[in-house]
Amino acid sequence: QVQLVESGGGLVQAGGSLRLSCAASGRTFSSYAMGWFRQAPGKEREFVAAISWSGGSTYYADSVKGRFTISRDNAKNTVYLQMNSLKPEDTAVYYCAAGRGAGTGRGSYAYWGQGTQVTVSS
Predict the structure, then answer these.
(1) What phi, psi does 43 have (nearest 5°)?
(2) 33 and 101 in contact (C-beta within 8 Å)?
């Protein structure tokens, strides 16, 4: 079983930056693709970014492309989401997830963290 814990969320002004971290407990972290999703109040959970098990391939939602960067450090069992030029519409609970292959749908991921709140003020 893989346990995931997100951290790094908080309150920032529009145009600011945050870096989210997701720490995995399992020894097999490097064998999993990782993804980030977000969910705003009253909205469906949506795909944000994903990275392959090797880190060689990354994928982004159009809404965050050019502003967010996903990366991983397998030696530290951690995946990151660097968020720059934040907008109020980025406000959401952000979740990390682990699966056997990088994908844009929730069904691609078997393990999920509890989420971390990101709030971007105008």
Answers:
(1) -115, 160
(2) yes
Rounded to the nearest 10 degrees, how much is the dihedral formed by the CA atoms of 103, 45, 114, 83?
A: 70
Model confidence over 111-122: pLDDT tens digits?
A: 999 999 999 999
Answer for the pair 83, 118: CB distance below 8 angstroms, yes or no.
yes
* DSSP conformation letters of 65-82: TTTEEEEEEGGGTEEEEE
Strands 10-13 vs 116-121: parallel, antiparallel or unpaired: parallel
What is the Rg, in whole angstroms, of the alpha carbon atoms belonging to the chain? 13
Query: Distance (Å, rounded) from C-alpha 63 to C-alpha 72?
Result: 21
Q: Which two tokens stand for residue 13?
A: 């002004």
